[in-house]
Amino acid sequence: MKIIVAGATGLVGSEIIRQCLDIDAVTEVIALARSPIQIDRSNKSLKIKCVMIEDYEYYPDHVKAVFAGADACIWTVAITPFRSGSFSFEEVKRVCQSCTLTGLQTIYEAQGGRAFRFMYLSAEGTPDDPTKKPMFMGDYQIMRRETELQLQEFSDSNANIEICIARPGVVTNSTTWGRAALASLLQLTNHFSRAIPNVGRSELAAAILSQILHGFSGEILSNVDLVGIGQEALRAKES
Ligand SMILES: NC(=O)c1ccc[n+]([C@@H]2O[C@H](COP(=O)([O-])OP(=O)(O)OC[C@H]3O[C@@H](n4cnc5c(N)ncnc54)[C@H](OP(=O)(O)O)[C@@H]3O)[C@@H](O)[C@H]2O)c1
């Protein structure tokens, strides 16, 4: 299976790439990024091809050619709420929405009608009703919901494409001291309740890859769904 991972330098994208190395069924990975990705020099990493672009809204012909023959794409590109304060809302919307739609259209067209799966990373708490603006980051959340709806519309009006929306909660990880502390705290409280929806980075990547490989179990996957699928996939890998 040939998979395109858009946003290969990101927190989620880089873990997906790492896990692809250990999955024999994944034979080729197109790591789409704005800067080089860190990969080891083992034999397994030969299946990863780093393709750099300047902007996720523009795809030169040589990049479109690399997309051909892909079976799936995992789209992790976004300006997250935490970083959105450093950009105008117009730019946040361009990266989160216009780039996603253009990326999907370009990758879809490169397949020439072959069956194709597209997994889009959204977030837990995205309002179902786009007319009801949440109190916190209302414009941002409505824009993310509109993006989800535009993707579903694309899937409804085009043949041979399946689209799934993953809505993780906080992605816990240990990439910095602060993140490791938060991950430990949430791990502890998860024994009692998952009051703040959260999913481990490796669980999330495992869940996404499992769905890409074996088929989508729904149009939208909640944080609970992702935790369950991810834990099962990691257990299967260990046994
Ligand atoms: N992390 C979480 O706790 C969390 C929770 C819920 C949902 N999610 C969702 O999961 C997805 C992936 O999240 P993540 O944590 O992996 O995000 P991330 O590490 O911030 O970055 C994701 C990707 O987006 C690209 N990107 C960021 N800003 C950009 C810009 N201004 N222009 C073009 N590309 C830009 C990054 O490219 P560069 O490396 O080149 O900047 C990176 O490849 C997002 O949709 C996010 O909303 C994340």
From TrEMBL:
InterPro entries assigned: NAD(P)-bd_dom (IPR016040), NAD(P)-bd_dom_sf (IPR036291)
Gene3D superfamilies: NAD(P)-binding Rossmann-like Domain (3.40.50.720)
Record domain NAD(P)-binding: where: 7-211
UniProt name for this protein: NAD(P)-binding domain-containing protein
